[in-house]
Amino acid sequence: MINSTPHITLRPATPADLALLQHWDEQPHTVASDPNDDWGWETALHHQPEWREQLIAELDGRPLGFIQILDPALEDSHYWGDVPANLRAIDIWIGEAEDLGRGYGTIMMQMAITRCFLPEEVTAIMIDPLESNTAARRFYERLGFRFVENRVFGDDHCAVYRLDRADWENRH
């Protein structure tokens, strides 16, 4: 058997993805990783500010997962608080439980990281898994993210991680 890398592509999420995203948002593994957020898909999919990209990852044309990349300094809810310019933040998940643990998330994250660092001025990427989500934390650490601090966002106790451009470039 020949090993091959799965063919994953990213495309913008659109209002046509509403039912899919609502379905994914209700899956037990997704709720467990993000229990208190209301993504407001009905509005978010119609609002495409310059500071945010919402992407659907597809595996050979089949929807696989979701990635959000945003500029935390410009994001309108100020979720990240006062942060310096030239950062990015990523939210990511696999939609269906049967697609977990197959390496797809790693490929999706590598694609998101590359996309974040395309603009030369971007210095680092932030991510905020739940403190209790040890599997996600190990996943991000394997990708080169470094723990910064534990922080409460709304009702969620999160572990903030950062990947500096220099660290990413040294790995590639």
Automatic annotation (TrEMBL):
Ranges where the N-acetyltransferase domain occurs: 8-167
GO terms classed as biological process: response to antibiotic
Keywords in alphabetical order: Antibiotic resistance, Transferase
SUPFAM superfamilies reported in the protein's UniProt record: Acyl-CoA N-acyltransferases (Nat)
GO molecular function: N-acyltransferase activity
Origin superkingdom: Bacteria
InterPro entries: Acyl_CoA_acyltransferase, GNAT_dom
Entry protein name: N-acetyltransferase
Native source organism of the sequence: Chitinophaga barathri
